[in-house]
Automatic annotation (TrEMBL):
The keyword ATP-binding does not apply. This is Cohesin loading factor. Its main location: nucleus. The keyword Nucleus applies. InterPro entries: MAU2 (IPR019440). It comes from the Eukaryota. The lineage of its organism: Eukaryota, Fungi, Fungi incertae sedis, Mucoromycota, Mortierellomycotina. Pfam families: Cohesin_load. It is found in: Nucleus. One of its GO terms (cellular component) is nucleus. GO terms for biological process: cell division; chromosome segregation; mitotic sister chromatid cohesion. Keywords: Cell cycle, Cell division, Chromosome partition, Mitosis, Nucleus. Belongs to the SCC4/mau-2 family.
Length: 714
């Protein structure tokens, strides 16, 4: 989740106290023109934020939103520039430093003037360094924090790390623990961007330990959630599950979630002393939980958490511009219990209000915006439902609606200023759109709608080119095209596309989706080599051995199920084949994967038929009914044809005739989809269609889950 994971927002206005009309001449006569300029600048920024809120919630109501927003930001900048050059005996050095800090913040957040922002920060640091005592201590730390953000944006990570050391040392020296939290988050983020997983997790653990020591419970939860998300994006599933086990007792107030696979794995206290009351933190915990559950194949648990996520989102509707942008407050209990501390950050001072009006001290956390979480939930809902093709198709509905919402977000951003934040947000939505389109193409493949699948893949390709994401998604597009070709019986072309996919993912060790895509392309290639047209059992064994080796340390239910099906075709003897298929049937039930279940029933029926087992009819009939009900027409056609052959062999002519009548609409659908290809070649000579259906089913089960989706963020 890169930048949007946790961006603790300490950039607050200098002064927001409204002034009476009579105060303006009084301030000027007292030589406090800078206070007036501050107030005008902040009033302009408040208006700009209000416009942003209205334009985002009601895109059609603000036709001239961009121009007005620009003017307001420009006015605020001009006021602060005038203030920075003002010569007045009442304007202290601290005031000059504040002015340049606020100017730098606005330039950084609302314009593209990174160089100008950095120059203002440097000037402000020189002013602060000349001030003796602790008067400018908070200003100094804010300047360091902004400087770190600039270094990160310009990819000068060494300078960012050096500044972090300096800032953290100063915060620790003054025992300003709220600033220490901030710098722990910044440091973990920098480690994350430089692919230092150990450094990132160690830093977050230090932050969680400090929060626990200080009694800041919600912050400890936040550190753990971020650590779990980083683990997920680093493909370190063991660490992600460790953090989930820590979090679940505190987050699962209704006791509907569980991540314990066996009694030996249970390491969390059964009776936590308290539960996390933050609804926003619960939302991010549920996203992490669903991602991990999908990854390890616990679809039932993922669906339970998805229901909880929908409810949590309904309870966290944004009330203002800050909440809309994903900013929420975490109270600092350590300050609340010790308000007499001189170091304590008073809420009133934080907002420019008189200290006596201060309420609960807090820090502001910036995570994903509400619209980002909302759209991500659509994607998660589509993925959770993708294996279940029972009509109406929930997965297709979720993904299509999600694509509409993401497209609407782009139309809103068309009115926005061209800032780093907007560009980062648009890239985030671009990556999310690509993920939605490619998952939707999988859904169309599973329902045997090749025309819609092709159209969706073309849209995804166009989108990736327009948004400059082709290098990121070329392997995924290649895999989708390969599966479409394989399902359509164009096996030579499918092999070429799978080869392209494996070549694109040759160095994909740090990319979990790319790593899985390579394995999936290998399994699908093996399926083709199992068929008559490209039969090469040695190649099949080599490919499957490599795929098993690649995933030996990752206990993925999805891949285990897929490999059991392939093993049933490659192992010599009907008894081993039956054993593998029985295991695959259990796993497909756990995954709630209707497509995989239909296919396994078909293959089991074939095995039982060859061994003259009485269960053959039951397996084939169940597979036929199940496949037809869930739109798996290829498997339904194969199961129906095999069942008819079974009746003819056993001299059950009436049943054979009845089955032939039931097969007709299924065969017509398959015949139309394959563009009038001869059905006998597809069913009897063509393990290709069955293998192709296996490929797309495995794609549904094994496609990397929201870890990769979360990793779509800049």
């Amino acid at each position: 989740m890169h930048k949007d994971l946790l961006d603790a927002a300490m950039t607050t206005p200098i002064a927001t106290t409204p002034m009476a009309t009579g105060e303006v001449p009084s301030l000027i006569s007292q030589g406090k023109t800078h206070v007036l300029l501050w107030a005008i600048a902040e009033d302009c920024m408040n208006q700009a934020r209000s416009l942003c809120f209205v334009a985002t919630t009601q895109p059609t109501s603000q036709a001239e939103w961009r121009e007005r927003h620009h003017k307001l930001v420009f006015t605020a900048v001009k006021c602060l520039v005038a203030c920075s050059t003002l010569e007045s005996p009442s304007m202290m050095q601290v005031d000059k430093a504040k002015t340049r800090l606020r100017l730098a913040q606005i330039l950084f957040e609302e314009t593209e003037s990174l160089d100008r922002s950095e120059a203002e920060v440097d000037k402000a640091i020189l002013i602060v360094d000349s001030i003796e005592g602790s008067a400018a201590r908070d200003i100094q730390l804010r300047l360091y924090d902004l400087q770190i953000q600039i270094y990160v944006e310009t990819k000068r990570f060494r300078l960012a790390k050096n500044t972090l050391k300096l800032a953290a040392k100063e915060a620790a020296k003054q025992e300003l623990h709220w600033w220490m939290y901030q710098f722990y988050l910044r440091k973990a983020h920098v480690f994350f961007l430089t692919n230092d997983v150990a450094g990132s997790l160690n830093t977050l653990n230090q932050g969680a330990a400090l929060a626990e020591k200080r009694g800041d419970f919600d912050l400890k939860m936040a550190f753990w959630i971020v650590a779990g998300q980083y683990s997920l994006m680093f493909s370190n599933w063991d660490h992600a599950m460790v953090y989930l086990r820590k979090l679940t007792p505190f987050m699962d107030q209704d006791h509907v979630l569980d991540i314990t696979e066996s009694p030996q794995q249970q390491q969390t206290p059964s009776t936590p002393t308290r539960h996390c009351d933050s609804k926003q933190l619960r939302v991010f915990f549920l996203i992490l939980y669903i991602s991990c559950m999908l990854r390890c194949g616990n679809t039932t648990k993922a669906l339970a958490a998805l229901t909880a996520l929908h409810s949590a989102l309904d309870e966290t509707r944004p009330k203002d511009a800050d909440e809309l942008q994903g900013v929420f407050k975490i109270p600092l209990q350590s300050l609340l219990s010790r308000p007499q501390e001189p170091q304590a950050l008073q809420q009133g001072q934080h907002q420019g209000l008189p200290p006596q009006q201060a309420e609960i001290p807090y820090i502001r956390i910036r995570w994903m915006s509400f619209s980002q979480v909302y759209c991500l939930t659509y994607l998660l809902s589509g993925i959770c439902s993708k294996a279940d093709m029972t009509q109406p198709m929930k997965s297709e509905q979720f993904l299509i609606e999600g694509i509409k919402v993401v497209d609407r977000e782009f139309s809103v951003d068309d009115f926005a200023t061209t800032t780093l934040h907007v560009r980062g947000k648009q890239r985030w939505f671009s990556l999310l759109m690509m993920s939605m389109l490619l998952h939707l193409s999988d859904v169309f493949l599973l329902k045997f709608d090749l025309v819609s699948a092709e159209e969706t893949i073309l849209k995804a390709t166009y989108w990736s080119k327009v948004c400059g994401l082709w290098d990121v998604f070329k392997w995924r597009v290649s895999l989708s095209v390969g599966m479409m070709m394989q399902l359509g019986g164009r096996l030579d072309e499918a092999l070429e596309w799978y080869s392209i996919c494996t070549s694109h993912t040759a160095d994909s060790h740090e990319d979990p989706e790319g790593y899985d895509a390579r394995s999936l392309a290998m399994i699908n290639t093996a399926l083709i080599y199992c068929g008559d047209r490209h039969f090469n059992m040695q190649k099949v064994k080599d490919l499957i051995t490599e795929a098993k080796t690649r995933h030996a340390s990752i206990s993925s239910t999805n891949f285990r199920c897929a490999l059991h099906i392939v093993d049933s075709w490659t192992k010599e003897g009907l008894i081993p084949a039956r054993q593998h298929l029985q295991e695959a049937l259990k796993l497909s039930s756990t995954l709630l994967n209707t497509q995989m279940r239909s296919l396994t029933l078909l293959l089991l029926g074939n095995v039982y038929m060859q061994t003259h087992d009485d269960q053959a009819e039951k397996m084939l009939m169940t597979g036929f009914v199940h496949a037809a009900k869930t739109g798996n027409m290829v498997v339904a056609a194969a199961a129906g044809s095999t069942l008819k052959d079974l009746y003819l062999r056993t001299s059950q002519g009436i049943k054979a005739s009845q089955q032939a009548q039931q097969n007709k609409p299924v065969l017509d659908t398959v015949d139309s989809a394959f563009q009038l290809r001869h059905l006998d070649r597809l069913v009897h000579q063509g393990q290709p269609p069955l293998q192709a259906q296996t490929a797309t089913t495995m794609a549904t089960a094994a496609t990397s889950t929201p870890a990769a989706t979360i990793n779509v963020v800049r």
